[in-house]
Every structure is written in structure tokens, then in C-alpha cells.
Design a protein that fits this description.
This is Methylamine utilization protein MauF. With about 190 residues, the chain is mainly α. The chain is built from 7 helices and no strands. It has one domain. The termini are far apart. The mean pLDDT is about 80.
């Protein structure tokens, strides 16, 4: 469990959440920086081919989220060791958040982040635009942790779980739509 055991703990839960969230944003930013550096390798590929590949991958991802296609996603099956949070909670929370924010240390169950990474790689956007996407990825993961912390209700957790399939499908379709519209506008 990420959060401290309660109000008598030496470190408050909100502080742990803030440090963890900072780690998520820093990790997402680092991954985006790596994607931006690698995106120069895609520059020689014709724009239409890059656009077609991005839309194709977005369509397959949307079909995967809707359950029409069974496709395993890349994952790192090693978990972040429990000892990371045991001894130094602030440092461990930052490290745990950073590793989770990179998206390469933990399993990402949704297809949309992979579509985003590929789209950024093939689009070869400016460094600030790509880094901003990485910040948004980390902030999105932080928002999930914050909502869990703020809700603290089994009824609300059940409500969220019941709607998660719809949320994943809507996200996948909106990524596909946004990708297609951006590429048609370019």
C-alpha cells in the first residue's frame, strides 16, 4: 500500500501522494524526452506512411479495448520491490512514482499510452510539445492515485469499477478520433 497507515504516522498521506505524484510526472517527462530523441529516426519515413501507421495502430488499439481483438501489450513483469517504500517513505514514494511514471517499469493495461508514444515518435513534434505530453501522461496517472485517495469509499470504488470498461473504450475511441483528425489536418 502506498499511503501511510493513518493520522498517527510521522508522514501524512497527502504528503506521500504529492511526492508520488511528482515522481509520476518526472517519469512521464523522461519517457517523453526519450521518445522525442528517438523521433528523429522516423523523420526520413514519408509523412503519409507515418500517418497511416499511426491511424492503423490506433484502430487496432481501439478494437483491443472494445474486446474485438486479443493482443498482449508489452510489459515488464517484474514488480517494484516492496522494500522501496519500507524504509524511507518519501524517497521510496518518489522512486516508485518515477518508475511507474516512465511506463516501462510497470504494466500499462490500456492501449492508449502505446498509441500516444507511437504517435509522438512518428509525428516528430517539437521538444516542448512532446515533453508536455509526457507531463500529461504522468499527471493522468497521478490523478488516478489522487481520486483513489480522495474517494476512500467502497461504494465509490464499486461505481468506478463498474464504469471502467466504458471509460477505457471511450478513451481508446477518442485517441483514435483525435489521431485521425490531427493527421488529416496536417
Amino acid at each position: 500500500m502506498l499511503f501511510s497507515p493513518g493520522w498517527r504516522a510521522p508522514i501524512r498521506q497527502g504528503e506521500v501522494l504529492a511526492v508520488f505524484s511528482l515522481g509520476l510526472v518526472l517519469g512521464g517527462t523522461l519517457s517523453a524526452g526519450v521518445v522525442w530523441l528517438a523521433s528523429g529516426l522516423a523523420a526520413p519515413v514519408p509523412t503519409t506512411a507515418r500517418a497511416a501507421l499511426t491511424v492503423l495502430v490506433a484502430a487496432v488499439a481501439a478494437a483491443r479495448e472494445a474486446g474485438l481483438v486479443r493482443l498482449p501489450l508489452p510489459q515488464n513483469s517484474r514488480q517494484i520491490p516492496q522494500e522501496v517504500l519500507m524504509h524511507r517513505l518519501r524517497t521510496g514514494s518518489l522512486r516508485f512514482g518515477f518508475e511507474m511514471g516512465t511506463g516501462v517499469r510497470t504494466y500499462v493495461s490500456a492501449s492508449s499510452p502505446y498509441v500516444l508514444a507511437l504517435g509522438l515518435l512518428l509525428a516528430h513534434l517539437s521538444a516542448p510539445a512532446t515533453l508536455l505530453a509526457g507531463v500529461a501522461f504522468g499527471a493522468g496517472r497521478a490523478l488516478s492515485a489522487a481520486l483513489t485517495y480522495w474517494a476512500r469509499s467502497r461504494e465509490r470504488d464499486a461505481l468506478i469499477a463498474a464504469r471502467m470498461t466504458w471509460v477505457k473504450n471511450a478513451t481508446a475511441l477518442s485517441v483514435l478520433t483525435a489521431t485521425t483528425l490531427l493527421l488529416l489536418a496536417a
